[in-house]
């Protein structure tokens, strides 16, 4: 297929593995945001080699957070990465609203709070009314007004089945402020149809989880956004690092282990949060399991599923332990993924 001749985007999303970061809560009846826990978790993920962080996506329980909470979280995280010495580290914010008006406001809030990019789901409240014209018009209208570049987020499981197909995404790729897509639909064929038309500089394709990261990269994609990064950031990031270094056999071996561990994340967000609390909570000083609960009305995992999660995710414990932390020598001296 002939490659597109559209211009390269002026601010593309850097390639790599991104974590859609969990929202952590105070262990009190109203489950207020625990900003200290989120600050330390963010720094843990960056030290673990993540190439970027995503906040207020599906794993971040965006639908359960207020506008004010979203702004406060982003400001706190921008401070967390700046304090590590990487002030320009890529932070992506979920900016998904049901109306065009709300989504535009969320992009402005995110930009002012320190986010570099916006991740946008399609509207879905009246799914039958989301025609092709409505869908494409929504993205274009938001992108027209957004002060930050937009990544199209395709996850039919949380949008009443509304699914951005490859024709939709190819049409949206021509917009100068729409820079790529995250395919949580898991459709590698869709990824190939897009990468056959566009270079990453024109329109980047990211997988929506790490269990098909290797196939995504082989298909011409540039990375993934994976909930597994909340638990095992070093191992998930390393699949990408090995692949781009040309160590394909080792990348594939590690991919197989990562895919096995991520099965727990596929079951439910409650299991992702439990796994993160179990394996990461002690490392960052937040061992109270309630910090890692979903926000009500959603319930934490029961004991049987907790035990199963430890077993399934635990296959990466040895891998994670032998990968060193990324070390920072001071502000501006050891950039990450394009940071200065």
Give me a quick take on this structure.
The protein has helices spanning 35-47, 67-84, 100-113, 132-145, 166-172, 188-195, 213-218, 233-244, 248-267, 269-284, 303-313, 317-321; strands at 16-20, 52-55, 91-94, 117-120, 150-154, 178-183, 204-207, 223-225.
Describe this structure in words.
There is one protein chain. This protein is α/β, with parallel strands linked by helices. It has a domain at 16-247: TIM Barrel (Alpha-Beta Barrel). The protein is built from twelve helices and eight strands. It has helices spanning 35-47, 67-84, 100-113, 132-145, 166-172, 188-195, 213-218, 233-244, 248-267, 269-284, 303-313, 317-321; strands spanning 16-20, 52-55, 91-94, 117-120, 150-154, 178-183, 204-207, 223-225. Strands 1-2-3-4-5-6-7-8 form an eight-stranded parallel β-barrel, surrounded by six helices. Helix 10 crosses helix 11 (303-313). It is globular. Residues 331-335 have low confidence and may be disordered.
Give the SSE map:
Blueprint lengths: L15 E5 L14 H13 L4 E4 L11 H18 L6 E4 L5 H14 L3 E4 L11 H14 L4 E5 L11 H7 L5 E6 L4 H8 L8 E4 L5 H6 L4 E3 L7 H12 L3 H20 L1 H16 L18 H11 L3 H5 L19
Parallel strand pairs: 1-2, 1-8, 2-3, 3-4, 4-5, 5-6, 6-7, 7-8
Helix pairs in contact: 1-2, 2-3, 3-4, 8-9, 9-10, 9-11, 10-11
